[in-house]
Specification:
Length: about 230
């Protein structure tokens, strides 16, 4: 069990790249996230290897489908022993409720969280796909629906955290990508904050990829983040 809120996003094209970093990391310092790129390549075998190394693993496949498909997919994720799994909140009430009910049958189910609005979206980009809506209103509405369906939390940007923490209470998980230590490149993320700002705002977990994986010294980059958070 780590005291760090950091979840390192292992966005690598091969299992070797991901395992190379994972073997140098200590499960006492972070959790790991396996997303679409790595999972498409390496699948359940890699999850098993990361579990053997002692890590809690967030399987980030953002399931977005009909209720039957979503609930069966999260059930398989639970079978694989992951610590956290996610769906898109825009799957709607039936899919999320069925997924939560399915996981409730496991003795040690993964945390089930739902993506609200991707952290790469700016308000202008958001309006291209959701005409006339305010991004933060949609995040707020989807978080309320997610909680009502019995899930453990949402993925949102740190920008929405103060509002969601006030609206959804202290026990609702707020998992935030879009985290950039001072001086690191934003890349394709738009709604960003530093690790300290995100935690001060009320984030439960920080998903951080490139600022660690692309650093010249990834271990030092993680160490520095944990240090600034007092989680070293
Ligand atoms: O569900 C996610 O993890 C996720 C949701 C979201 O809204 N934004 C987002 O960036 N992510 C993931 O979080 C990670 C962020 O990585 P970096 O931008 O490299 O720190 C990536 O693996 C994304 O797939």
């Amino acid at each position: 069990m780590t005291h760090s809120p950091v979840i390192v996003a292992l966005d690598y094209p091969t299992a070797e790249g991901a395992l190379d970093l994972a073997r140098r990391l200590d499960p006492a310092d972070c959790r790991l996230k396996v997303g679409k790129e790595l999972y498409t390549r390496a699948g359940p075998a890699l999850l098993a290897q990361l579990h053997t190394l002692g890590f809690d693993v967030f399987l980030d496949l953002k399931f977005h489908d009909i209720p039957n498909t979503v609930s069966r997919a999260v059930s398989v994720a639970a079978d694989l022993g992951v610590w956290m799994v996610n769906v898109h909140a825009s799957c709607g009430r039936r899919a999320m409720t069925q997924a939560a009910d399915t996981l409730a049958q496991f003795s040690a189910p993964p945390e089930l969280i739902a993506v609200t609005v991707l952290t790469s979206f700016s308000q202008a980009e958001f309006e291209e796909v959701h005409h006339g809506e305010r991004l933060e209103e949609r995040v707020s509405m989807l978080a309320a629906l997610t909680q009502d369906c019995g899930l453990d939390g949402v993925v949102c940007s740190p920008h929405e955290v103060p509002r969601l923490r006030a609206e959804r209470g202290l026990n609702f998980g707020l998992v935030t990508p879009g985290v950039r230590p001072v001086g690191s490149d934003a890349g394709d993320q738009t709604r960003i904050m530093t690790p300290e700002q995100a935690i001060a705002a009320g984030s439960s977990y920080l998903v951080i990829g490139r600022p660690i994986t692309q650093a010249s010294d990834p271990l030092q980059a993680l160490h520095q983040i944990n240090l600034t958070l007092g989680a070293d």
